[in-house]
Amino acid sequence: MFAADKQAILEKLASMYPHMEPALVYHNPFELLVSTILAAQCTDARVNLVTPALFRDYPDAFAMAKAEPEEIYPYVKSCGFSAKAKNIVLASRKIVSDHAGNVPSDMESLVALPGVGRKTANVVRAFAFQIPAIPVDTHVLRVSNRLGLASALTPEETEKQLMDVIPEKDWCDAHHWILYHGRRVCHSQKPDCANCELKQLCLAANTHMINPKLDARKKKKEAPHDSPAL
Fold it and tell me: With 50 as the cut, is the pLDDT of residue 202 above it?
């Protein structure tokens, strides 16, 4: 039976995707939080197109908290889901009322914000506050399980298993390694196994177990508060 060499996979991923940075453009924790809420089921590139105008007119939680969702929606409607505008406003109000206008860094406070699930909270913790964390989105869920780094059906289970496999100092970087491999090579429906540098190490490639239907079931199990539908 094929067994994935997890250490070799991680070393290869690190060499393939060195010095990766978040694709979202942000300048402070509040901007990253809002951008990550908008990025649920939307491309980072699209989010980066709409946020400059949004943050120009609503630069912080205090300004956003004073707005109504219908005022925010025209800025972000191309990112989908009108509920995102509502969540951004409600989250801003809670940040103002409960945290003096500062985005909190602890998991409990972050997931208490409207529109914020564990994945979004981990993004903010990892890249706004440099707290070791492994955000698990659809790409990380899919790719880590295909490679054999994890064997789980939910983001929470996958996160726990990755934390056991990956040294804590590499958690934030490993998120990007796996994420970018999913975006560039290990696509959901048509993974480019033939040209994948990891094909000799990959559990799914070596056991012919790539199953888009299973991946879809995993996707549906993502945390419900990361977006209106996610």
Answer: yes
